[in-house]
Design a protein that fits this description.
161 residues; globular
C-alpha cells in the first residue's frame, strides 16, 4: 500500500527557492554587512587600545568587555526577545552596532578617542551582538515566507535514560 500525499508534502514540493525571495536576500545581505562589521570591530578595538596605551593588559580588558555581555546576558536576552518582534530587534541591534562603530570612527577622526570610550563601545558592542546573534535563525523564520526557510534540524536519537 502506497502512502497518500499529504498537504505538507505538496507544500514542500512548491517550496520557493531562497535566492528568488526578496525578503530573504535583504536579510542575507544585511547579515553579511553585519558580520563584516563584527569582524572589523573585533579586530579594530584591540588595535586601537594598543595604539593608545601600549598595554597588553588593557587590550585583554577591552576584549573581555566585549565578551562579557554575551556570556552573561545571552539567556536573559534570548528569553526577553522571544516576547518581542524578532525582526525589529535584529534590525535595531544592528543599527545600534553601526552607530556604535560610527562613534568610534568620529572620535578617531576628530582626535578625541580615549580608552574609556573604547571600553564603553566594546561593552555596547558585546551587548548588542549578544542580542542580535541569539535571534538570527528565528528571525530568518519570521522574516521569510513559511515555505522558504529549511526546517530546523531534527534530533535523530532519543537520549538514553
Amino acid at each position: 500500500m502506497q502512502p497518500s500525499i499529504t498537504q505538507s508534502d505538496q507544500s514542500e514540493a512548491r517550496r520557493i527557492p531562497l535566492w528568488r525571495n526578496r525578503d530573504y536576500l535583504v536579510l542575507w545581505s544585511g547579515q553579511t554587512v553585519s558580520l563584516i562589521g563584527t569582524g572589523i570591530s573585533q579586530t579594530a578595538f584591540p588595535l586601537l587600545v594598543w595604539d593608545l596605551t601600549h598595554s597588553a593588559a588593557q587590550v585583554g580588558f577591552v576584549g573581555g568587555l566585549g565578551t562579557l555581555p554575551y556570556v552573561f546576558l545571552s539567556l536573559l536576552v534570548g528569553a526577553l526577545i522571544d516576547r518581542w518582534n524578532r525582526k525589529r530587534v535584529m534590525i535595531l541591534c544592528d543599527i545600534g552596532r553601526a552607530l556604535n562603530l560610527a562613534s568610534v570612527l568620529a572620535a578617531l577622526v576628530f582626535g578625541q578617542l580615549t580608552v574609556i570610550q573604547l571600553y564603553f563601545n566594546a561593552l555596547a558592542e558585546g551587548t548588542l551582538l549578544s542580542s542580535s546573534i541569539s535571534r538570527r535563525w528565528p528571525a530568518c523564520r519570521a522574516w521569510s515566507p513559511r515555505n522558504s526557510c529549511p526546517p530546523p534540524p531534527r534530533r535523530t536519537r532519543r537520549p538514553k535514560g
